[in-house]
Amino acid sequence: PLPKHIDTNKILEKISPQKDVDGFSAINVGKLTSGLADGFVPCTPLGVMRLLEEYSVQIAGKNAVVLGRSNIVGKPMASLLLNADATVTIAHSKTKNLKQLCADADILVAAVGRTHFVNADMVKEGAVVIDVGINRGEDGKLRGDVDFDAVAPKCSLITPVPGGVGPMTIAMLLSNTIKSAKNRLKQRA
Ligand code: NDP
Questions:
Q1: Ligand 1 atom 35: residue of nearest CA
Q2: Which of 86, 132, 165, 173 is buried most deeply by CB count within 10 Å?
Q3: pLDDT tens-digit profile of 74-122?
Q4: Sign of CA dihedral 63, 67, 73, 78
Q5: Predicted model pTM
Q6: Does residue 70 belong to any structural domain of this protein?
C-alpha cells in the first residue's frame, strides 16, 4: 500500500518486469493470462496454487469460485485456476446470487477482506476452502474471511487464519526473488 497522493500505477510502471517479484507489471500480468510460465506470478495466489498442489487437490474440471477481484489476489487467482483447467467464476461486490454461486463451488477462494464473510450455508459438502482474508479485529486478533469453526466440518480441506495462506505468500516472495536473481545471473553468463 502506498500513501494516497502517490499514483500506484506510475510506481508499478517504474519497476523492471525482471525484478517485479510480486507480478504486478503489465508484462507479467499479460504472461500470466497468456499462460506463459516465464513471468512472475503474484505471491499470494501462487502460494495458494502451491498449497493445492501439495495436498494433491485435483483442479481440472472443477468448479472454482474466487471471491474478490483485486489485481493482487482475485484476478491472478482466477487466471491461475483457469490455466489449471478449472471452470472459474469471479465474484465481487456487485455479484448477484453470491451465496448460491459459492455453494456450488468445489474450490472456494475467499479474498474479500471481511471477517467471517463465508458461512456454512455458502459452502458445499466436501469443498476445498482457501481463506486469503486477513482482518484484524478490535481485540487485535487476526481473523479470516471464512468462519472457520462453522465451515470446517463441511470441507475436505480448509486453510486457517493465521497460519494458512499468509506464510505461503512470504515463501513465494522468496521463491520469486531467487528466480529473479537466477535469471539475472543467466543473462550475465
Ligand atoms: P481488496 O479490498 O482490494 O478487494 C476485495 C474484493 O472483495 C473486491 O473485489 C470487492 O469487490 C470484494 N468484496 C468486498 N465486499 C464484498 C461483498 N460484500 N460481496 C462480494 N465481494 C465483496 O482486497 P485484497 O484483494 O487486497 O485483499 C483481500 C483480503 O485478503 C484482505 O483481507 C487482505 O488483508 C487479504 N490479503 C491476504 C494476503 C495473504 O498473504 N494472506 C495477501 C493479500 C491480501 P469490488 O471489486 O466490487 O469492490
A1: 133
A2: 132
A3: 999 999 999 999 999 999 999 999 999 999 999 999 999 999 999 999 9
A4: positive
A5: 0.97
A6: yes
Give the three cell numbers for residue 75: 484476478
Q: Is residue 67 situated within a structural domain?
A: yes
Orientation angle between helical segments 43-54 and 165-188, nearest 10 degrees: 110
Residue type at 187 in one-letter notation: Q
In the chain, how many domains are there?
Answer: 1
Kindly give, in sequence order, each residue whose CB lies less than 8 Å from that of residue 82, ignoring residues fewer than 6 positions away: 88
Continuous segment of H or E residues that includes residue 135: strand 135-136
Give a yes or no: residue 7 inside a domain. no
Q: Containing domain of residue 129, as a range?
A: 15-179
Overall residue count recorded for the chain in this entry: 189
Domain annotation covers residue 60? yes
By the 8 A CB rule, do 18 and 26 touch?
A: no
Q: Are 67 and 105 in contact (CB under 8 A)?
A: no
CB 92 within 8 A of CB 69: yes
Q: How far is CA 163 from CA 3, 108, 169, in A?
A: 28, 18, 11
Pocket lining: 93 vs ligand 1, CB cutoff 6 Å: yes
- Tell me which of 22, 24, 65, 92 to substitute to probe ligand 1's pocket, judged by most ligand atoms within 8 Å of the beta carbon: 92
Q: What's the sign of the alpha-carbon dihedral 128, 75, 50, 132?
A: negative
